[in-house]
Specification:
The complex is a heterodimer. Chain A has helices at about 5-20, 20-35, 70-80, 120-130, 145-160, 170-175; strands at about 40-45, 60-65, 85-90, 105-110, 130-140, 180-190, 195-200. Chain A is α/β, with parallel strands linked by helices. In chain A, strands 3-2-1-4-5-7-6 form a seven-stranded mixed beta sheet, with helices on both faces. Chain A is globular and about 40 Å long. Classes of the chains: A alpha/beta, B mainly alpha. The structure holds S-adenosylmethionine (SAM).
Chain lengths: ~200, ~100
């Protein structure tokens, strides 16, 4: 029987922090700079175990969602330490239970690789973002260089089976397809890990 | 020769995959995956062909090590080429009020 992405993350929750420890250390500095753009009421999509909370500016009013109960549970101690407001919700990015034009900014970190239908998910995020608001996406995508894209395609077979995460997505195009205007697209590692800003036109 | 190359590539990639399990947690997923896969693939191919050509073990080892070093260096240089260095101070919207 094939498990759903939610339960797959329930299963990897125990080892997630260990597997991500190298990335967490390497991404601290670029994430801290990038997240400075977050403003006001913020939707944080796919909080996982909350590894990046320490990189957030203080004082935001956040709602953090995830489809994995186990990951949400593990994020709780980090959420409690955040110097601002943060509420946790078990919620799917493809069915966000908030009204239209509700958030000032939205953040995704390594989650658009996992959302089942990323363009649908992004359209839903577009709906709940206020006009003029910003989508900040710190995500990995498929490289355009074949020396890098072959390993990504091979590893994607394994990661999609284990966790439902694909290493082959064209997230920048998906952000555009959902209606956002891409304001900036900055490489963090090669052309694979990117910090992308999308704007919902006012 | 072709079979030796293919065999070498397969063995190289399997070895690198096992190494990845140990190296990803301390060093980061993509920083390990990209160079290691290429080292396994190209290093393995070269080693397989060298062996089929009857080249001595120490020479094969030396070639493997040099290939690994060269690929790591190329990926590192390519990374510097890809990103602005240092990463920009992303614009803040709306602009922050100047400190009093
Ligand atoms: C790779 S983890 C990233 C976690 C965290 N953002 C980080 O970078 O450490 C992906 C997370 O997204 C969650 N996720 C997957 N699909 C989702 C969806 N459709 N809606 C909300 N969260 C989702 C998973 O449960 C998992 O916790």
């Amino acid at each position: 029987m094939k498990s759903s992405p939610e339960t797959r993350y329930d299963q990897v929750a125990k080892t997630f922090d260990l597997i991500r420890s190298g990335d967490t250390r390497r991404w601290k500095e670029p994430q801290t700079r990038f997240f400075r753009q977050l403003r006001g009421k913020t939707l944080y999509v796919g909080i996982g175990t909350g590894l990046e909370i320490v990189n957030f500016p203080p004082g935001l009013d956040m709602v953090a969602i995830d489809t994995s109960r186990e990951m949400l549970g593990r994020s709780r101690p980090r959420v409690d330490l955040y110097p601002g407001k943060m509420r946790l919700c078990l919620m799917d990015a493809e069915r966000v239970g908030f009204p239209d034009n509700h958030f000032d900014s939205i953040l995704t970190v390594c989650v658009l690789c996992t959302v089942k239908n990323p363009v649908n998910g992004l359209k839903e995020l577009y709906r709940v973002l206020k006009p003029g608001g910003r989508l900040l996406s710190f995500e990995h995508v498929l490289s355009r260089n074949p020396f890098y894209s072959i390993p990504l395609r091979l590893m994607s077979v394994i990661s999609s089976t284990l966790t439902g995460s694909y290493l082959t997505r064209d997230t920048v195009s998906n952000i555009r397809r959902a209606g956002f205007r891409v304001e900036s697209d900055t490489n963090v590692y090669l052309d694979i890990v990117k910090a992308v800003v999308g704007i919902k036109p006012a | 020769m072709f079979l030796a190359m293919l065999g070498g590539m397969t063995v190289g990639m399997i070895v690198c995959f096992i190494l990845m399990v140990f190296l990803v947690p301390p060093l980061g997923a993509f920083e390990v995956m990209i160079p290691l896969h290429n080292i396994g693939m190209w290093g393995g191919m070269i080693a397989g062909m060298s062996r089929a050509a009857g080249i001595s073990e120490p020479a094969i080892l030396l070639t493997g090590a040099s290939t690994g070093f060269a690929i790591s260096l190329l990926v590192l240089i390519s990374d510097y080429g890809h990103k602005p260095s240092p990463l920009p101070d992303f614009p803040v919207h709306p602009p922050e009020a100047p400190a009093p």
